[in-house]
Amino acid sequence: MSGVQTEPTSDTGGGLNVGWIDAGDWLDYSVNVAESGTYTVEYRIASNTNTGQIQLRSGQTTLATTTVPNTGGWQNWQTVTATVTLTQGLQTLRVYAGGPSFNINWINFKLGDTGTQPLTAPSNLAYSQPVSGTILLTWNASTGSTGVQSYEIYANDQLRGTVNGSTLTFTDNQPSTATVTYYVIAKDAAGNASPRSNSVTRVGEVTGGSNLALNKPITASSTVHTYVATNANDGDITTYWEGAPNAYPNQLTVSLGANANISSIVLKLNPSSEWGTRTQTIQVLGREQSASSFVNLVSATAYTFNPATGNTVTIPVTATTADIRLVFTSNTGSSAGQVAEFQILGTPAASPDLTVSGLSWSPTSPNETATITLTAAVKNVGTASSPATTVNFYLNNALAGTATVGALAQGASQNVSVNIGAKTAASYTVKAVVDESNTVVEWDKTNNSFTNPTPLVVSEVPSSDLVPAAVWSPGNPSAGDTVTFSVNLKNQGNIASSSGTHAVTLLLKDSQGNTIRSLNGNYNGSISAGGSANVSLGTWTAANGNYSVTATVAADANEIPAKQNNNSVTTGFYIGRGANMPFTIIEAESPANKTNGTILAPNFKPGDYAGEASGRSAVYLDGTGKYVEFTLTSPANAFVLRSSVAENTTGTVSIYANDVKKGSFTVTSKYSHVYATPSTLGQLGYDNQPGSGLTAYWLYEDSQLLLNEVYPAGTKIKIQKDTGDVPWIYVDLLETENVAPPASNPDPSKYVEVSASKSIEQALNEFRQDQTKKGIFIPAGEWTINSKIFLYGRATEIIGAGPWHTKLVAPKNQTNTNVGFNISSTADGSTIRDLSAWGTMSTEWMVLVSLSMATE
Fold first, then answer.
1. Within 13 Å, how many C-alpha atoms sit on residue 388's CB side?
2. Exposed, middle or buried, 3 (CB in 10 Å: 0-12/13-18/19+)?
3. Predicted confidence band at 749 (pLDDT cuts at 50, 70, 90)?
């Protein structure tokens, strides 16, 4: 007993409450009982623990004992009650603290009126696992005027045990593999029950090997709403995948990456009683790593999922396979297949695992005349031998060379080297990637790359450096105009060029790579360091089309080999109606492409995959390894793929450059497959719900991908359906573009820069208040805006870092949101450039690849 103190209370009525109550503390009250009888005594209490207890005493007799619950804070007030029998007359009653740590504000006595306050639900149910298979439950006490007689503990909706009303713990023993959901109910002496407590779920452990499917690539033939495939192997029992309604068979496929020895498959749904019992018919298919198709592992069988038994089904499987596919054909609880957790139990089969453990170069401090050799240390850390493959070497993410690494036994290593020649003076990040083309099936592909933390630094030597730039007049000719070509030669080296003859050529090619015009000329004399000279070449009669112009100058006698890589420069050239866009469009069905897919016969039928394609034809890829290969007509690092996949599908399709995989496009049907009738095409895009008599139009959607390397003209870009990609895809076209790195603020003194701490509107307000400012700069990134940006007051410049880098986006959790700009007449002359705006409609994202405008 350490004594009590008073303090101001936040309870209704104000005043003081008694606090700092420890076990053994007491308060005596002189009470004049007007009438003998049974009374309800009410205590107004607050506590931040569940250890408090109040005993109401008369002399040495304890009249009632009341548990003080955790109310959530020292000033979170709650009324608890007890029932006592009192005799008439003046007497002293003692409030005795049988347990510590609670505050009390007031006490009230009511004659009779018992049993009027029902039991509250036990609160804050939680569990811990002291040892495997043992679950310790704890909770906070229930309260009520009738008092708690006992607590009943339920596991998966079945009574598991009972404890007395003063016990707030329960220990249960369950197999470590079982998934169990618990809740607790309080009861009084008359058998009246409280509401249920909160529920807690102990998820069972994986046995028979580890769960190989966790967070591995997973795809579905269809999904509904936000119940996507990745929910089924994220380790969270409360998220789940569900297929499209009434679209059987539904397929769910996990790609392990390499063969594994499978012992069983465990499928789980949330064990909460809210999920009723259901039966799903499921077939299990598998694909061995060297096979191109799936085979049956377990025939279609009806499996019952019951929350009372953990809502878990185990399917024995004995197979060696790299991919597992579930095929759902019925579900009594829904109109499609459902899985919360898809676990594949087993152990990795013997597989190689290639790594790059080191990377060096010789000489260690080269200059621009030195021939440089890169060397990578490759090791097989797997459990099986590896066949021969290749190592790609990169300088600043540009491919510098490729070397062969021979077959490696388990644990063996090999040094492989490549001569990359001389390089211009610069600091280079050096990276090596083994088996980038995925010819070796490995268990782990994430450790195939190594980047040296120290850059390769090449020092400068005296040299000229001639760079040609094609020039034409008029700059934007129309068909039929006479175009005059010349080449500007600039010496960006550190010494003058030689004084002899410098041969110059210019090649004009069409979009198919055919040479339209070849012009030749010469420049005689020396060009000083930093100087330039013009060479006139000839004319051409313009015709509509996309062209490339390649200007080339012969190597100069004073120019070292490392400086000669830029002696040939290619630029784009467009003639025709509309804007001269920075990208090139290549139709998938073009005869210049290579494909093993199916080229659709052209037609003009609405709602048909050929008829809805841009060129009335497309290429259909429906099997692993099916591809269409494009040839770049100009350098590119950015790609837009126009394609169509099955309704209710989101997944990937792979992209290769010269047969080396570089990544994947994310493709989706979310914003396509909009429905209408021939007579309601004017409303297309306002309703995305299928129905009787409706046809799916607007079948194609665009996907963007910006790679970290610029690929030159002539590079083979392949769109290929790999294992783990969408089941099938129609490819309409590929747009290619050479996107510059993100631009920086052109003049921080004139353009207010948007940042994480300065919104677009705040930057505009700062610009409006300073007449010396020209506008605002929005750097690279996605900037969420809830509505159109309003420009007013005076001409305003809105500048971004580039349309691929600065993106204004509508909130992704809302629909029918149109973003962009609203320009008042008082802001005439405003300019908006180098950014893109992305809004949402009910059926698709509305995309502005580039927005550049000025009002008049």
1. 5
2. exposed
3. confident
